Amino acid sequence: MAWSATMIGALLGLGTQMYSNSLRKLPYMRHPWEHVLGMGLGAVFVNQLVKWDAKLKEDLDKMLEKAKAANERRYMDEDEG
């Protein structure tokens, strides 16, 4: 997954820079270092997004487990009382 996320981010960064140049009616590869920078930032952004999504799923699972345990305790207490 890391390889595909990196490639998607790099393409996102490259595409953003080329789109920016085309909107301003400049040559696509006017400053090549900007494309490299955009690819690097895009790769970092998408990789962080993937890590954040995994952490979010993990936290959600923990919260759902706590809620399930609290509901079970609540209903068990009502049955005993």
- Could you say which structural class the secondary elements and strand pairing correspond to? mainly alpha
Shape: rod-shaped
Q: What order do the helices and strands follow?
A: HH
Tell how many strands the DSSP assignment holds: 0
Beta-strand content:
under 5%
| Overall mean pLDDT | 90
Radius of gyration: 23 Å
Taking pLDDT < 50 over at least 5 consecutive residues as the criterion, the unreliable ranges are: none
Oligomerization:
single chain
Terminus-to-terminus distance: 51 Å
Helix content: over 70%
Determine the number of helices (DSSP H or I, runs of at least 4 residues): 2
For the largest beta-sheet, the strand count, sense and barrel status come to: none
